[in-house]
Design a protein that fits this description.
The protein is mainly β. Helices cover about 0% and strands about 60% of the residues. The protein is built from no helices and 12 strands. A 6-stranded antiparallel β-sheet has the order 1-2-3-4-5-8, with no helix packed on it. Strand 6 (about 55-60) and strand 7 form a beta hairpin. The radius of gyration is 14 Å and the shape is globular. It starts with a strand and ends with a strand.
Length: about 120
């Protein structure tokens, strides 16, 4: 297993036999989000008891429109974590994690953060 920290975004590669999984992580001060490429699992954690709801999405790059579009969203329960499978097809797609905070359905100013871009294949 090895890990690296690049611009506040962590990447960890776990190897077991011939299979491996890559984990990408980003945070925004209210919580963090982790995407595990083997199984396409997005975990979101609320790390503060401040009333801010932590949300994260997996965004996929669409070359035809030259834009990022959310393909799945997950929310963290207050002061806890939740995981959800966000199926990325094809596996070779370029994706990133978007994390933000909300209060009463309104985005908290300055709470947006994005992971580095990566390919979703394990």
């Amino acid at each position: 297993m090895f890990g690296a920290l690049v611009g506040g975004v962590a990447m960890v590669v776990v190897m077991a036999g011939t299979a491996h999984a890559t984990e990408f992580r980003t945070d925004n001060g209210y919580g963090h989000a982790i995407f595990l490429t083997d199984g396409d699992k997005l975990s979101v954690c609320d790390t503060r008891t401040d009333g801010v709801k932590v949300r994260a999405s997996i965004q996929k790059w669409y070359e035809a429109t030259s834009s990022w579009q959310a393909i799945g969203v997950n929310d963290a329960p207050a002061s806890a974590c939740d995981s959800k499978v966000i199926d990325v097809e094809p596996d070779s797609s370029l994706v990133r994690i978007h994390i933000w905070g909300e209060i009463d359905g309104n985005k908290v100013a300055g709470s947006d953060n994005y992971s580095m871009e990566f390919h979703a294949n394990p």
